[in-house]
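Exercise 3.2. Students should predict the tertiary structure of the chain below and write it as structure tokens, then compare their answer with the key that follows.

Predict this chain's 3D structure.
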Amino acid sequence: MSDTRTFETMEATSSSYSVYTGQRYARNQVLSNENCNQVHSYVYAQQLCTDPYIGGNFCQVIHGGPLAVVDENGPMLIGITNWVYVCSMNNPLAHIRITYFSEWIRRNSDYMFDF
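Answer key:
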């Protein structure tokens, strides 16, 4: 609940599933929202983006895929795919930032947070 990391510059793995292409994975660097806003003028605090030029991107409009980083404690889910352009090869992928909604998750689920 007290995690305030932005995960900027960390390498993150995202995945997407399509009935046409199956499961796909991309490893990208997490961008600052400031850098993401240079391309997308409507990225908000509850979102984070990944850099399509480092590791690749998806070319299907698929939402809900996980975005995870690995730190000293192992893999950690930090985002869920929010929007993808029809072909995002040159555009950052946007994700919903899990930590932004941690209080809502705590109040509305039976998930037990590790403190």
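Discussion points: The chain has a mean pLDDT of 79. The CA atoms of residues 78 and 98 lie 5 Å apart.
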